[in-house]
Protein backbone atom coordinates (compact mmCIF):
# COMPACT_ATOMS: atom_id res chain seq x y z
CA UNK A 1 0.00 0.00 0.00
CA UNK A 2 1.49 3.29 -1.05
CA UNK A 3 1.25 6.46 0.96
CA UNK A 4 -0.54 8.17 -1.94
CA UNK A 5 -3.24 5.50 -1.99
CA UNK A 6 -3.72 5.84 1.77
CA UNK A 7 -4.01 9.62 1.52
CA UNK A 8 -6.48 9.29 -1.38
CA UNK A 9 -8.56 6.90 0.73
CA UNK A 10 -8.28 9.07 3.86
CA UNK A 11 -9.41 12.31 2.20
CA UNK A 12 -13.12 11.48 1.62
CA UNK A 13 -13.37 9.90 5.08
CA UNK A 14 -11.72 12.95 6.64
CA UNK A 15 -14.25 15.21 4.91
CA UNK A 16 -17.12 13.00 6.10
CA UNK A 17 -15.85 12.95 9.68
CA UNK A 18 -15.20 16.71 9.70
CA UNK A 19 -18.68 17.55 8.40
CA UNK A 20 -20.94 14.82 9.82
CA UNK A 21 -20.30 15.01 13.59
CA UNK A 22 -22.03 18.35 14.19
CA UNK A 23 -25.33 16.95 12.89
CA UNK A 24 -27.17 15.95 16.04
CA UNK A 25 -23.96 16.07 18.04
CA UNK A 26 -25.29 18.25 20.88
CA UNK A 27 -27.46 15.91 22.95
CA UNK A 28 -27.18 18.13 26.02
CA UNK A 29 -29.06 21.14 24.67
CA UNK A 30 -32.53 22.18 25.84
CA UNK A 31 -35.33 19.86 24.77
CA UNK A 32 -37.20 21.23 21.77
CA UNK A 33 -34.15 22.89 20.25
CA UNK A 34 -33.21 21.91 16.70
CA UNK A 35 -31.19 18.72 16.45
CA UNK A 36 -28.83 20.11 13.84
CA UNK A 37 -26.10 22.13 15.50
CA UNK A 38 -23.10 23.27 13.51
CA UNK A 39 -20.14 23.95 15.76
CA UNK A 40 -16.75 23.87 14.16
CA UNK A 41 -13.70 24.45 16.25
CA UNK A 42 -10.16 23.56 15.29
CA UNK A 43 -9.58 21.20 18.19
CA UNK A 44 -12.62 19.06 17.38
CA UNK A 45 -11.90 19.05 13.65
CA UNK A 46 -8.31 18.01 14.36
CA UNK A 47 -9.46 15.03 16.43
CA UNK A 48 -11.98 14.05 13.76
CA UNK A 49 -9.24 14.10 11.12
CA UNK A 50 -7.06 11.91 13.36
CA UNK A 51 -10.05 9.57 13.87
CA UNK A 52 -10.44 9.35 10.09
CA UNK A 53 -6.74 8.48 9.78
CA UNK A 54 -7.08 5.65 12.31
CA UNK A 55 -10.17 4.28 10.55
CA UNK A 56 -8.34 4.47 7.21
CA UNK A 57 -5.37 2.52 8.58
CA UNK A 58 -7.76 -0.02 10.10
CA UNK A 59 -9.53 -0.39 6.74
CA UNK A 60 -6.20 -0.74 4.97
CA UNK A 61 -5.34 -3.63 7.26
CA UNK A 62 -8.71 -5.24 6.57
CA UNK A 63 -8.80 -4.81 2.81
CA UNK A 64 -5.12 -5.52 2.12
CA UNK A 65 -4.69 -8.59 4.28
CA UNK A 66 -7.98 -10.14 5.32
CA UNK A 67 -10.23 -9.51 2.34
CA UNK A 68 -13.10 -7.31 1.29
CA UNK A 69 -16.10 -9.39 2.31
CA UNK A 70 -18.23 -8.35 5.24
CA UNK A 71 -16.82 -4.82 5.43
CA UNK A 72 -20.24 -3.40 6.35
CA UNK A 73 -20.53 -5.69 9.38
CA UNK A 74 -16.99 -4.87 10.48
CA UNK A 75 -17.58 -1.11 10.32
CA UNK A 76 -21.01 -1.47 11.93
CA UNK A 77 -19.42 -3.25 14.90
CA UNK A 78 -16.60 -0.71 15.14
CA UNK A 79 -19.21 2.06 15.02
CA UNK A 80 -21.08 0.42 17.90
CA UNK A 81 -17.86 0.21 19.91
CA UNK A 82 -17.11 3.87 19.29
CA UNK A 83 -20.60 5.34 19.66
CA UNK A 84 -22.33 3.59 22.50
CA UNK A 85 -20.04 3.19 25.55
CA UNK A 86 -19.79 6.88 26.46
CA UNK A 87 -23.49 7.43 25.84
CA UNK A 88 -24.54 4.39 27.88
CA UNK A 89 -22.77 5.86 30.90
CA UNK A 90 -24.82 9.05 30.50
CA UNK A 91 -28.02 7.08 29.80
CA UNK A 92 -28.59 6.26 33.47
CA UNK A 93 -28.40 9.90 34.58
CA UNK A 94 -30.72 11.66 32.12
CA UNK A 95 -34.48 11.86 31.62
CA UNK A 96 -36.27 9.90 28.83
CA UNK A 97 -36.28 12.66 26.16
CA UNK A 98 -32.50 12.95 26.51
CA UNK A 99 -32.20 9.16 26.45
CA UNK A 100 -33.88 9.19 23.03
CA UNK A 101 -31.47 11.91 21.91
CA UNK A 102 -28.51 9.82 23.10
CA UNK A 103 -29.80 6.83 21.14
CA UNK A 104 -30.39 8.93 18.02
CA UNK A 105 -26.94 10.50 18.15
CA UNK A 106 -25.23 7.18 18.78
CA UNK A 107 -27.08 5.77 15.77
CA UNK A 108 -25.82 8.69 13.67
CA UNK A 109 -22.27 7.88 14.78
CA UNK A 110 -22.71 4.23 13.77
CA UNK A 111 -24.08 5.33 10.40
CA UNK A 112 -21.05 7.61 9.99
CA UNK A 113 -18.73 4.63 10.48
CA UNK A 114 -20.65 2.45 8.03
CA UNK A 115 -20.55 5.28 5.47
CA UNK A 116 -16.80 5.63 6.04
CA UNK A 117 -16.44 1.86 5.57
CA UNK A 118 -18.28 2.12 2.27
CA UNK A 119 -16.00 4.89 1.07
CA UNK A 120 -12.93 2.94 2.12
CA UNK A 121 -14.22 -0.25 0.49
CA UNK A 122 -14.60 1.74 -2.72
CA UNK A 123 -11.14 3.34 -2.47
CA UNK A 124 -9.13 0.43 -1.03
CA UNK A 125 -11.08 -2.67 -2.07
Structural commentary:
- The chain is mostly helical.
- The protein has one domain (about 5-125).
- It is about 75% helix and about 0% strand.
- The radius of gyration is 16 Å and the shape is globular.
Task: Outline the secondary-structure elements.
Layout: H1 3-19, H2 42-66, H3 71-91, H4 96-124
Helix pairs in contact: 1-2, 1-4, 2-4, 3-4
Kindly summarize this structure in a few lines.
The chain is built from four helices and no strands.
Radius of gyration: 16 Å
Number of strands: 0
The main pleated sheet reads as: none
Cα end-to-end separation: 12 Å
Low-confidence stretches: none
Mean pLDDT: 83
Structural class estimated from helices and strands? mainly alpha
Q: Tell me the helix content.
A: over 70%
The percent range for strand residues is: under 5%
Contiguous helical run count? 4
**Helix-strand sequence:** HHHH
User: What's the shape?
Assistant: globular
Which key terms come to mind for this protein?
mainly alpha, 4 helices, 74% helix, 125 residues
Amino acid sequence: MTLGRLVAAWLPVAILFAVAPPIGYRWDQAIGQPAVVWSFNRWEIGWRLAEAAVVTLFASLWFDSLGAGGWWLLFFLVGLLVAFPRRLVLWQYVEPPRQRALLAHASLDVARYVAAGGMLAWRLG
